[in-house]
Design brief:
Strand content: 35-45%
Helix content: 10-25%
Number of domains: 4
Structural class: mainly beta
Radius of gyration: 31 Å
Shape: flat
Number of helices: 10
Length: 772
């Protein structure tokens, strides 16, 4: 007998004995592989018992004040079967039903944790993150360093002009090879590493992402261009909070906040209002400042001033609906660091009508000084951030690399991995003995008649010239197919800016300009960039103090080198503007092709089955598991579980992808004869033992081979001697050393996956071929 337990806010909910509760689970659907799915239930009802009325705060009676349950918000929930954990997520109260003037039931829907991740981000934008961890002083010398430095930096300055079209070697007015016409550091906008943005998101929302992809050297070279204004950058400091506190009894100037509430006044009074005034004096001559005014945490307006000023921030009329209007302030300086002093004042005024005489004004004033708030020249990431919601940016990253995001058991912990890798490291579950053999349905799936992968349309003149020549957006890919399905489109919320290289040089640049002649700077959608390896160049640069020659730089554009091979952030098979060769490892080929080729395999089938799985198998079954049915291998497309009856409906997809293995983007081609560094994430396969958790007790053993070893293997920065036993997902670094033999050489490193008992249940192999 199976019993279902539902907990909302850690309180056990009463359930109807005969209520059917179904949970549908899906990661990515064959009809739209760009969308990430999660668990959700059909709406079901629970009784309006005394216990449930208390949990839902008597929702059916709006005269009862909500204290713990807010109906318009989703509440924390978890589902157990026979007190064995099954799913965690959120519950949405849809409504209640009253019969015969008595509360009868509540209607609710359960949602998995990935849905709640989007809820957690809400409407916040990149500008709402805290950039303290990547702060740096904005100066010409620092900009120059972040053009050239080969170290692992979170902020770079790509050579993208928003001011003019640079030339090279033509002796013209914009020839950056000449000392007279250098690139000025104020012309350049920065780019922020995507991994750094992920880390800032983790900090703000207290979430954790289990992801070897996010920590991979491949993703470390992916950046977002930081531009939300058309003109060149000026030095605006990072915001500092206005610090004040008035200890006077009754004052509302407390702990850096001004809290305004309705103040009851006697009859016969009129024109009651409250004023907020901030007086600012900059002790640094000729340095202007911004005073950012926030109402309840949202930017209300920005006041600009120079030297000294008295600023009326707000005039609020005293109406009964005035409640907890909280004002806070930030200060920023323009053109350099500044020390600022001043005063914050709050007044409340009203007039009283007197019989036979003039009205009397009553004013209550509280004020307090603030001193020595010293701004910095740190770059202001908040006010220069691209205009995009965090949820949309994060979703765009998932689409760009075909990532899946799925919750783990712990609260606010998520797995984020490329879809193929996520599938690759699940377990294998044989459901044949538990399947209703009379209900197997085999279908020909409706495949797409067209597939397209697109970036946002760019106004940059290099992109428009490319589209005019080719009829497609730069980096986009379209496929027309002879099938009867629907159109499928993956569209990223990012621009893909085209670059150009000066003839005879390694110097690659681009332009955020709408025209090559007389063009104007424009504000792009968030632009995605890859960073390539350091190149030798020669151009002139001015850091605000002097002009000098730059002889090396870190190129930005569509290309990067990962594990000795070229990769592109274009979806199509395009020529590299930097290397003048086609880059075969596009986003489509790297992250989407395997999945789509499997769908179009002639033997591909969609199979629907009913089964009744044992409870231990059901509670441990995850969507990355491969399903074995009558000796054939399938992936789970969706799974619908009737929690009350134990019946499971599975939609399965034939799996003709490569055998499971540990290697992510190991070099396909020969590596060069010189020294090579290859970093490979090795993951622990899920043990087929039904009682094991994810990776529970399983290990991966990198074996030694009898042939001559020409590689050095290390983990965690420590050189290791084979064999190596790994008990958790780990990046393995392989150094090849220089090959001076004149002949190609091959090195294999077999991997054995062992369960908790030490029995090998799968094998793989790292294969390195080095040219002579």
């Amino acid at each position: 007998m199976r019993e279902v337990q539902l907990y909302i806010n850690n309180q056990l909910v009463d359930l109807f004995d005969d209520e059917k509760i179904e949970i549908t689970s899906s990661i990515q659907n064959i009809q739209d592989i760009s969308k990430v799915y999660t668990d959700f239930s059909q709406s079901f009802t629970v009784p309006a018992s005394d216990n449930n009325n208390s949990i839902f705060d008597f929702f059916y009676n709006n005269d009862v004040a909500n204290s713990t349950f807010i109906a318009k918000e989703r509440a924390d929930a978890r589902i157990e079967i026979n007190h064995t954990p099954f799913r965690k997520g959120k519950v949405q109260l849809e409504g209640s039903e009253i019969k015969n003037n008595q509360a009868d039931s509540y209607k609710i829907t359960f949602y998995g944790d990935v849905v709640t991740l989007k809820d957690l981000f809400g409407d916040n934008k990149l500008a709402d993150l805290d950039y303290t961890d990547i702060a740096f002083a904005y100066s010409g010398s620092n900009v120059n360093d972040r053009i050239q430095n080969t170290a692992d930096l979170d902020v770079r300055f790509p050579l993208i002009s928003s001011d003019k079209v640079w030339t090279y070697g033509d002796s013209g007015a914009n020839d950056i090879s000449l000392p007279a016409h250098p690139i000025s550091y104020t012309e350049l906008f920065p780019a922020v590493k995507d991994k750094a943005i992920i880390d800032l998101i983790k900090d703000k929302y207290a979430v954790n992402f289990t992801s070897q992809f996010f920590s991979s050297s491949y993703f470390q070279k992916s950046f977002t261009y930081w531009k939300n204004k058309a003109e060149d950058l000026t030095i605006v400091s990072a915001p500092l909070p206005l610090i004040f506190n008035d200890t006077t009894s009754g004052s509302n100037l407390i702990n850096n906040e001004i809290v305004l509430n309705y103040i009851p006044i006697a009859s016969g009074t009129f024109f009651p209002y409250q004023n907020i005034i901030v007086t600012i004096t900059s002790t640094t001559p000729n340095v202007s400042y911004y005073l950012d005014v926030y109402l309840n945490g949202t930017l209300l307006n920005t006041i600009e001033g120079t030297n000294s000023g008295v600023h009326t921030v707000a005039t609020i009329y005293n109406t009964p609906n005035l409640s907890n209007e909280i004002y806070t302030f930030d200060l920023r300086s323009i053109g350099g660091a500044s020390t600022i002093v001043g005063e914050v004042k709050s007044t409340f005024s009203y007039w009283t009508t007197n019989v036979g005489s003039a009205s009397t004004q009553t004013t209550v004033t509280y004020s307090t000084s603030f001193t020595n708030i010293t701004t910095t020249t740190n770059f202001d990431f908040n006010n220069t951030a691209p205009d995009i919601k965090i949820a949309d940016w994060f979703s765009g990253i998932l689409k760009q690399f075909n990532l899946t995001c799925y919750p783990q058991e712990a609260d606010k912990y998520y797995i984020v991995e490329p879809l193929e890798e996520w599938y690759n490291f699940g377990g294998e579950v044989d459901i044949t003995p538990y399947t209703d053999i009379e209900s197997i349905k085999v279908d020909r799936p409706k495949l797409y008649k067209s597939i397209s992968f697109e970036y946002e349309k760019s106004k940059a003149f290099l992109n428009e010239e490319f589209e005019g020549r080719t009829g497609r957006g730069y980096g986009n890919l379209s496929l027309t197919l002879p099938y009867d399905g629907s159109d499928f489109k993956v569209k990223l919320p990012f621009e893909n800016m085209n670059f150009t290289k000066f003839t005879g040089t390694n110097l690659q640049v681009s332009y955020a300009l709408d025209n090559a002649v007389g063009g104007k700077s424009y504000i792009p959608k968030p632009v995605k960039l890859f960073m390539d390896e350091a190149k030798t160049v020669s151009f002139r640069f001015n850091d605000g103090s002097s002009t000098f020659e730059v002889t090396s730089y870190m190129p930005f554009g569509q290309d990067q080198v990962y594990n000795t091979e070229n990769y592109s952030q274009n979806f199509g098979f395009d020529m590299s503007t930097l290397k003048d060769i086609p880059i075969n490892n596009s986003l489509y080929r790297t992250w989407y092709e395997s999945y789509i080729q499997n769908l179009f395999n002639d033997k591909f089938r969609q199979v629907t089955v009913k089964c009744r799985l044992p409870l231990p198998m059901l509670t441990l079954l995850t969507l990355d598991d491969s399903i074995i049915l009558r000796d054939k291998l399938y992936r789970i497309d969706s799974m619908k579980t009737d929690l009350t009856s134990g019946e499971v409906n599975l939609v399965l997809l034939s799996d003709f992808t490569d055998t499971k293995g540990a290697i992510t983007n190991a070099p396909i081609n020969k590596v060069s004869s010189s020294d090579n560094t290859i970093i490979l994430p090795v993951k622990i396969l899920k043990s087929p033992t039904p009682s094991s958790e994810f990776g529970g007790g399983a290990t991966a053993v990198l074996e030694a081979t009898e042939e001559t070893q020409f590689v050095t293997v290390s983990t965690g920065g420590v050189t290791r001697t084979l064999p190596i036993t790994l008990t958790e997902n780990t990046d393995v670094t392989i150094l090849t050393g220089r090959n001076v033999s004149g002949s190609d050489r091959v090195q294999g490193i077999p991997i054995s996956y062992k369960d908790a008992a030490g029995t090998t249940f799968n094998t793989s192999n790292i294969l390195i071929v080095q040219e002579g």
